[in-house]
Fold this sequence. Notes:
Blueprint (H helix, E strand, L loop, with lengths): L1 E4 L2 E4 L4 E7 L7 E8 L6 E7 L5 E3 L7 E6 L4 E6 L8 E9 L7 E4 L3 E6 L1
Parallel strand pairs: 2-11
Antiparallel strand pairs: 1-3, 3-8, 4-5, 4-9, 5-6, 7-8, 9-10, 9-11
Amino acid sequence: QLVESGGGSVQAGGSLRLSCAVSGSTSSSYCMAWFRQAPGREREGVAYIYTSDGTARYADFVKGQFTISQDNAKNTVYLQMNSLKPEDTAMYYCAAGKRPCVLSYVDYWGQGTQVTVSS
């Protein structure tokens, strides 16, 4: 089970940190990821991290702006979002799946947390 938190409303240039609490076991081949979906748009990958070694990858449109991390002791994955822009407004979803950690390889989804960035 994946439970997100930390979404909300923020002005452009602000920051938010999303959290994803993971319950249940995941195999070492799993990756944890954040996706987002804006109204009228397809769900897109934002960032992912391999749980086995912490390797992280980002979509080009968030490189240098977002940081994904994991706290294995707390079974939690984070997405630190800085310098937020109105175009970052979307529902953000935590996901767990298998490598290569793209949409079609996701096994579990969280319920989503809304992020709204105003100009």
